[in-house]
């Protein structure tokens, strides 16, 4: 995949600005003390859908409207955040949105997608099964399928990285949660476009390690997606195109446990009073896990989203 350049990223930023403002990039004294580093948090939990995914959906739908003028509807598979972005961006175009989720998906994310006007379809036991069924639905209903990884989605997510690097310059390292890869590839694109030397670290759930295993092996290695607390990281089958970008540009991967993610959710709430879903908190979990490596440094952590079911969040807050 050819990475988006700076001019393309700025044009994408202009499109994103028609729907949402820049999200904050803050450093929090209590969190800094806890991490032993100057940590700049990119608050994508402050987007209109509570996650970074809206950015890519805006850019994708803009392209879709220009290239497919007769389109009336789209379909996508999701664990929740991508679906919310697609639903909102489709509604702005007057299109229908059919969103496929696996059985047992986040109740509150499901409700949010329906509130945005999406038709919700439950199928399969994990994202991969839902994704395969979304492909079938697209063919059956004559809908356009919005993939969960695409260069246009990378272009959109790269806009948050531009904001982050503008707000917090000279970061030694940025920790980025990895679901299917659009977020970390967007950070890679922005770093390259700006000519920065910042190291990029991918973060995965220990219970869903497919990307970390694939990075270590240098090829796609499927693995069961077993995480319960971080559904946004529940990837069974990595995207080869995304992995190729990571192999060239990512410094390393960090795996974080369910307990470490829950502790990070609690730390974020205690130190910043922000709500982070498991995937969003995983970046801070990785910073804490690598405290010795980042001590005294200036680092970034992407809080990719804050859409977490109440009982999951309460469980994280009440854990010892």
Structural notes for this entry:
The protein is of the alpha/beta class and 320 residues long. Helices cover 50% and strands 15% of the residues. It has 14 helices and ten strands. Strands 1-2-10-7-8-9 form a six-stranded mixed sheet, with helices on both faces. A four-stranded parallel sheet has the order 5-4-3-6, with helices on both faces. Strand 3, helix 4 and strand 4 form a beta-alpha-beta unit. Helix 8 crosses helix 10. The protein is globular.
Give a quick set of tags describing it:
single chain; 320 residues; 6-stranded mixed β-sheet; 4-stranded parallel β-sheet
What's the arrangement of strands in the largest beta sheet? 1-2-10-7-8-9
Strand content: 15-25%
Helix content: 40-55%
Number of strands: 10
Radius of gyration: 18 Å
Q: Give the termini separation.
A: 44 Å
> Averaged pLDDT, please?
96
Count of DSSP H/I helices: 14
Element order: H for helix, E for strand: HEHEHEHEHEHEHEHEHHEHHHEH
